[in-house]
Amino acid sequence: xxxxxxxxxxxxxxxxxxxxxxxxxxxxxxxxxxxxxxxxxxxxxxxxxxxxxxxxxxxxxxxxxxxxxxxxxxxxxxxxxxxxxxxxxxxxxxxxxxxxxxxxxxxxxxxxxxxxxxxxxxxxxxxxxxxxxxxxxxxxxxxxxxxxxxxxxxxxxxxxxxxxxxxxxxxxxxxxxxxxxxxxxxxxxxxxxxxxxxxxxxxxxxxxxxxxxxxxxxxxxxxxxxxxxxxxxxxxxxxxxxxxxxxxxxxxxxxxxxxxxxxxxxxxxxxxxxxx
Length: 276
Description:
It is globular and about 45 Å long. The longest helix has 16 residues, at 161-176. The strands form two sheets. It has a six-stranded mixed β-sheet. Strands 5-6-7-8-10-9 form a six-stranded mixed β-sheet. With 276 residues, the protein is α+β, with helices and mostly antiparallel strands. It contains six helices and twelve strands. It has helices at 4-11, 48-62, 81-89, 161-176, 200-203, 209-213; strands at residues 32-40, 66-74, 93-98, 107-114, 118-126, 133-142, 145-153, 184-189, 207-208, 235-239, 244-252, 268-275. Strand 3 (93-98) and strand 4 form a beta hairpin. It has a single domain (29-275), classed as 4-Layer Sandwich (Deoxyribonuclease I, Chain A), CATH 3.60.10.10.
């Protein structure tokens, strides 16, 4: 049975733990505001002990309500990176998902950090299962109204468009499995430029927050020059355009700190949104 989403689509310095105050969502002329961010933290590559305070500093500066993290790792001697970052920032609930079983020492996956009250959480393994891809879902309470957040990380090889297409189909089925009609966002490292063919089913439902806010700007890269051979934007914040107004959308964590080291091999993407 068609839900309302189908009908709409058819119609058109290191911060100490706990030191940051919780971010309040502010009323606006067109609706309540929420700030979201997506950031691939590059697991423990490079020197994580050097990059960790850079990642935390960049996220602390955003003071976002919702943070989607990709390439989150936990291992022997390495605490879960999402939980560690959330503790350093203070005030965030953590929803970590992985294809690896909960009892396993080494687990790799994605996480959603939320400063808003979490009403529900869920997860889905994306096919093929040997690609270790997941989608994390949280429903949050924004001033008394629910908002659905989906965070994912798709297949990485450029020639793997057919695999990403399957994963996007799985993701859309996961989104459709929600019984409510709450506004929804999709964030994450899609490993795909938004104009590529496999991306189009997502664009039938969602629009790109960065382009909505920067319609005439030159397309940026979210891959750090020197660490990648290509310079393209593959990290995205996608919104239902009839449910959100984009107030701001930009990259973050774009500067190198110690000895030319960047926080990650990706730049992050943030968007400040008014929910209609």
